[in-house]
Amino acid sequence: MAKKLRKKIIAGNWKMNKSVSEAADLASDIKSDLADYRDADIVLCPPFTALKTVSDVITQTHIKLGAQNMHWASDGAYTGEISPSMLRDVFCHYVILGHSERRTMFNETDEIVNKKVKAAIAGNLCPIVCVGEVLQERESGAANDVVKKQVAGSLAGLGDDIGKVVIAYEPVWAIGTGKVATPAQAQEMHAFIRGVLGSIFNEDIAQSIRIQYGGSMKPSNAGELLSQPDIDGGLIGGAALDARSFVEIVRLAK
Ligand code: PGA
């Protein structure tokens, strides 16, 4: 089967960083270099408090806005939570779901992630669904099983809606550690995930879904990672907090 052309997608996950004015500055700096860039999809995911401001900065550009989490309900008594329609209200197109920090620190299970993925799609948002093994799982040879279970659980019951999903493979041992997966390790897992998607959905769908790599991606290692056949972009944490390094990574994604 002919390989489908997948447009690369680079997303900056700013995590719990940046005040509103710092976020505006970072988004403006990125915009001044990339406002007309069309060779890759670009997504900025600031904290909730800065979504509206960043949205205003990047309006009328190709740069899209993403959130880092949301609740699955549309409204109601959920103190401290944010709904899909609230994210659409500030012009979010994407939402990161099931990040390992949420899975480990906030007890998000595959079932919870699955509810959120369905709610995001119903709410007209593209979910960026994160999966990845911890170090001990990799060392004990369980990485494939762990990731397969996360993919199957997080995407259960999606049917045709799967086309709106982006997957981010983020080996937990590489997140914020400076320890990056080798291009070969990452490619192997990405190809494995694509195979899992093929068995759950079908081969056409598997070939069309974009799978980002995340975990200490930076300008010095992004080129090699992004040139792997099954790596379709990056979910960038630390390096996305600096406009120059984020822009450099985007320019490596063609
Ligand atoms: P990192 O974070 O690039 O700082 O490793 C990636 C992520 O957690 O999405």
Quickly list its features.
254 residues, alpha/beta, TIM Barrel, eight-stranded parallel β-barrel, 11 helices, globular, binds 2-phosphoglycolic acid
List the helices and strands and how they pair.
Blueprint: E1 9-13, H1 20-34, E2 41-45, H2 51-58, E3 64-67, H3 84-89, E4 92-97, H4 100-105, H5 110-122, E5 126-131, H6 135-139, H7 143-154, E6 166-169, H8 183-200, H9 203-208, E7 210-214, H10 219-226, E8 233-236, H11 243-252
Parallel strand pairs: 1-2, 1-8, 2-3, 3-4, 4-5, 5-6, 6-7, 7-8
Helix pairs in contact: 1-2, 1-11, 5-7, 7-8, 10-11
The structure holds 2-phosphoglycolic acid.
Structural overview:
This protein has one domain (9-252): TIM Barrel (Alpha-Beta Barrel). 42% of the residues lie in helices and 15% in strands. It has helices at residues 20-34, 51-58, 84-89, 100-105, 110-122, 135-139, 143-154, 183-200, 203-208, 219-226, 243-252; strands at 9-13, 41-45, 64-67, 92-97, 126-131, 166-169, 210-214, 233-236. The chain has an 8-stranded parallel beta barrel with strand order 1-2-3-4-5-6-7-8, surrounded by 6 helices. The longest helix has 18 residues, at 183-200. The chain binds 2-phosphoglycolic acid. 2-phosphoglycolic acid is lined by residues 13, 170, 175-176, 214-217, 235-239. Residues 13, 170, 175-176, 214-217, 235-239 line the site of 2-phosphoglycolic acid (PGA).
What structural class should be given to the helix and strand makeup? alpha/beta
Q: How big a fraction of the residues is strand?
A: 15-25%
Shape designation: globular
Describe the strand arrangement of the main beta sheet, using strand numbers: 1-2-3-4-5-6-7-8
Q: How is the main sheet built?
A: 8 strands, parallel, barrel
Order of helices and strands: EHEHEHEHHEHHEHHEHEH
At the fourth CATH level, what is the homologous superfamily? Aldolase class I
Which compounds are bound in this model? 2-phosphoglycolic acid
- For the record, the CATH architecture stands as Alpha-Beta Barrel
Multimerization status? single chain
Number of helices: 11
Low-confidence stretches: none
CATH class: Alpha Beta
Question: What is the averaged pLDDT score?
Answer: 96
**Helix content range:** 40-55%
User: How many domains would you count in the coordinates?
Assistant: 1
Tally the beta strands. 8
Query: What is the CATH topology descriptor?
Result: TIM Barrel
Indicate the radius of gyration in whole angstroms.
Answer: 17 Å
